[in-house]
Amino acid sequence: MSPHANFEGLRVFSPESKQGEAMAELISRLGGLPIVAPSMREIPLEDAPEALRFADALTGGALDAVIFLTGVGARALAEAVAPTLPQERLVEALGKTTVIVRGPKPLAVLHAMGARVDVAVPEPNTWREILASLDEHLPVSGKRVAVQEYGVPNQDLIRGLEARGATVLRVPVYRWALPEDLGPLRAAVHQLAEGRVDVALFTNAVQVDHLLRICTEEHLEDELRRAMRRVVIASVGPICTKALHRAGWEVDIEPSHPKMKALVQETARAARAALEAKRRRGDEESPRLEVNIPAPIGEDARARLDRSIFMRACRRAPVPYTPIWIMRQAGRYMREYREVRARVSLLELCKRPDLVSEVTVTAVERLGVDAAILFADILLPLEPMGATIEFVSGEGPVLAPVVRTGGDVDDLREVNPAESLAYVFDAVRLTRASLKPDLPLIGFAGGPFTLASYICEGGSSRQFEHTKTLMYRDAGAWHALMEKIVRTITAYLNAQIAAGVQAIQLFDSWIGTLGPDDYRAFVFPHVQRLIRDLTPGIPVIHFGTGTATLLELMRDAGGDVIGLDWRVDLGEAWTRVGFDRAVQGNLDPLVLFAPPEIIRERVRRILDAAGGRPGHIFNLGHGILPQTSVDHAIALVDAVHEESERRAPGGAPRRDT
Cys-Cys link to 582, which of 104, 362, 374, 561 (CB 3.0-4.6 A)? Predict the structure, then answer.
């Protein structure tokens, strides 16, 4: 045991149950004061129906592979199927399929049974190593794979198997209940809420859920949330970490190996420094925000912004030149942004108002555009609702848990964005104060269909099969999901408006996957309600991609400006939308890969299509791509300003802002 691993008298809470005594002893040996309160009790599933279905599938030759995740679960599964499939027959049936084990414990159980093991997953035995081992030894496309579960289901593993084309049979062996004696856990919750805990160790995602349940029963939700900001939180591994993130708690320590002993030792080594840093940061943050985050803008400044070129175009008022801004104008194509991202992750950047302001303002100043758009991510509101968001290189955002049933919809939390997303509104105020006084700031949110799709699919998708399956199979659950999202997004956008944005864009980026009938039935009333309930007088830009068949419906759903992607002719689309609305768009983002003279020619075509009508805001038809040259983006802005100024009848010369 490392001589440097020592809690130095810190008060250490653990909701460990089965290994509670071992946990308390280990904490004590490492110089901590243990507060161990059992939080879980194992309850066998009545008659083990899933286990019996597994036995039938295994003996019937309907399985190509079986993955055993835990030793206790492997033993329990063998006991559950024993009445219909004695051990010798189970071993024989397993011999006709491929057997994969996660780590030494299920390996030992199966060897003791006399079963053959084909693939032993190496340390640290996470779902990533399981999938990597299968990719190497048993590609699962078209295979039927059973997964023995014990505890909280590993959604990442299931999703990874399904993404590889496997058909998955999930075999839960146990479920969890609260312990019969809740006294120690209730006492521990009060200690946590009262600030009498320094470190919290979690070894199972269910522990988090049960702790929150007792917290709710004791009416200590607010107190616990505040207290946990000053506690070092350690998680044994990714699944447990995601449960903690769903609870809204920052995880400070995750061990190099997902084992209890490693968790305690590595936490003991780092706890004192982590606690001091966390509490120092907490003490500093509130005063800093109060002093340095400006108040919302006053009426004089609001009137000046309202006279800006961009805002006049939103109202379809005559302007001396066409305003332009670029979707994702603060992004990876810009060196200054990449330098910031080299220091922090995307989510960390979104939650740092100072950095949000920096990248937002830098992009405006480099490009010379006519409006800023707040740097954020459309997925942020889903996090306090219960989703854990991870940005995986090469895959994009990965969300868990996914929403696939009415029960999953019920599990999504109703949130108050003013509290759970306060960092966004601080960023609005700081950015507004940092921008030139006549340059508008655009706030935004993801459209309800797009956010629903992300949380149903668990990330990006081509076919949207899970989203549409819920929509078609359980319309009631679908509408309940959309209503929850709309309530959150409406409050979120209104809070941005109150903090100081001048316009709002609704990004329903994936809406083009629907046909008109489905849009009308499953999306239209929700978007209409959302836009209707936004603060009056603030222009709303309603944008989607692949919307050639939906433009009239989007217009009727609402919005002062209809965003157009590059797949439609701007003039024809504006005719369909109606000239009583402004339009935004719609250069193909890949045109920016062409030489400046080609960019200028394409600008002329779009301006020709707009026909000089008031109410055109120039933009790309979607976000700027990371490989784009900054010089070409600047050339686009210059071309729009110069070419449109020449066309404006009697237009005054453009004044640089």
Answer: 561
